[in-house]
Amino acid sequence: MYSYIEGELKSVTEDYIVIDISGIGYEIWCPNPLRFQTKIEEIVKVYTYFYVREDTQMLYGFKLSEEKDLFKKLLNVSGIGPKNALSIVSQTSVQDFAKAIEQENDAYLTKFPGVGKKTARQMILDLKGKVDEWMQVKSDDLLTIETEITPSNHHLYDEAVEALLTLGYTKRELDKIAPQLKAHQSNSTDDLVKHGLQLLMR
């Protein structure tokens, strides 16, 4: 229904963002909403998917159009609901996910919360051959995917620091917790920010 929404970013929470368009605030649930933290009061474009069921209506949003496409494909897999799909999108890139599907890498897929071997096999069955357009290498030159979901820790750390600076903490305060924050094993910016806040409050 909504291909994308473009408007002024008013607020960011741990679960969703609010975008204002002509005085109407759209609550949009996102993977890693804190990725938008530095854009508050700026115009942002979010690729959206309107999820409608008898008992619920939710608007989901994504920074990249391919993340939205992955979310939609995951919803078509038996046993995967919007909460699981959003969690998966928040923890991997579409390229790495596509490689895991094409390589039938159960070990990678079962690292996602709520995904057991049965669901992993179902994802492979339903999606193999349907996500290969996201792969950036030829099928006969596939890279081996690590069994741990480990997005660039450096990238996550930088995003977490930006978010904490936006929340009002100083660089001096963040420098004090930097070693502990960098050492914290995390798969999302949100988790790193939460851990950072815990360290700062000690």
Automatic annotation (TrEMBL):
One Pfam short name: HHH_5
CDD domains recorded: UBA_RuvA_C
GO molecular function terms noted in the UniProt entry: ATP binding; four-way junction DNA binding; four-way junction helicase activity
Principal place of residence: cytoplasm
Record has RNA-binding as a keyword: no
Positions of the Helix-hairpin-helix DNA-binding motif class domain: 72-91, 107-126
Residues covered by region (Domain III): 154-202
GO CC, alphabetical: cytoplasm; Holliday junction helicase complex; Holliday junction resolvase complex
Protein location: Cytoplasm
Keywords per UniProt: ATP-binding, Cytoplasm, DNA damage, DNA recombination, DNA repair, DNA-binding, Helicase, Hydrolase, Nucleotide-binding
Entries under NCBIfam families matching the protein: ruvA
HAMAP family (alphabetical): DNA_HJ_migration_RuvA
Function: The RuvA-RuvB-RuvC complex processes Holliday junction (HJ) DNA during genetic recombination and DNA repair, while the RuvA-RuvB complex plays an important role in the rescue of blocked DNA replication forks via replication fork reversal (RFR). RuvA specifically binds to HJ cruciform DNA, conferring on it an open structure. The RuvB hexamer acts as an ATP-dependent pump, pulling dsDNA into and through the RuvAB complex. HJ branch migration allows RuvC to scan DNA until it finds its consensus sequence, where it cleaves and resolves the cruciform DNA.
Subunit structure: Homotetramer. Forms an RuvA(8)-RuvB(12)-Holliday junction (HJ) complex. HJ DNA is sandwiched between 2 RuvA tetramers; dsDNA enters through RuvA and exits via RuvB. An RuvB hexamer assembles on each DNA strand where it exits the tetramer. Each RuvB hexamer is contacted by two RuvA subunits (via domain III) on 2 adjacent RuvB subunits; this complex drives branch migration. In the full resolvosome a probable DNA-RuvA(4)-RuvB(12)-RuvC(2) complex forms which resolves the HJ.
Similarity remark: Belongs to the RuvA family.
Written domain comment of the UniProt record: Has three domains with a flexible linker between the domains II and III and assumes an 'L' shape. Domain III is highly mobile and contacts RuvB.
Name the record gives this protein: Holliday junction branch migration complex subunit RuvA
Source organism of this protein record: Alkalibacillus haloalkaliphilus
